[in-house]
Design goal:
With 117 residues, the chain is α+β, with helices and mostly antiparallel strands. Helices cover 42% and strands 15% of the residues. The protein has a single domain, classed as Orthogonal Bundle (Arc Repressor Mutant, subunit A). It has four helices and three strands.
Amino acid sequence: MAKTTEKKVPRLQWMDPQSIRAHPDGVRAHSTDSERARAARLEDRVVEELEASGPMTADECAEALGETPGAVRPRFSQLRARGSVRPTGRRRRNVSGKSAAEWELVEGRVQGELALS
């Protein structure tokens, strides 16, 4: 009987949980500088859209900016962690049919932060 050679399939390598923890700027710790810069620019655009349009859900903001909700939602989380935005207490359905929080800028917080950046 002839021996068959089996190819070894590499096992999935799981990332160390510490290496994927959130970075203070709201981007994963293993992200590149260009990804961090893009996230910061997108965060500024989110703030500008909220200033121009008033309270909105993250998905509505993503649509207005021509971005994906997956790119915009973390920016809202980071802005909330800094105290720059807050939920209005109102919710409405997004495109997927899920209930989404409406967000608004916190007066006096964001304008000063943008001026410093």
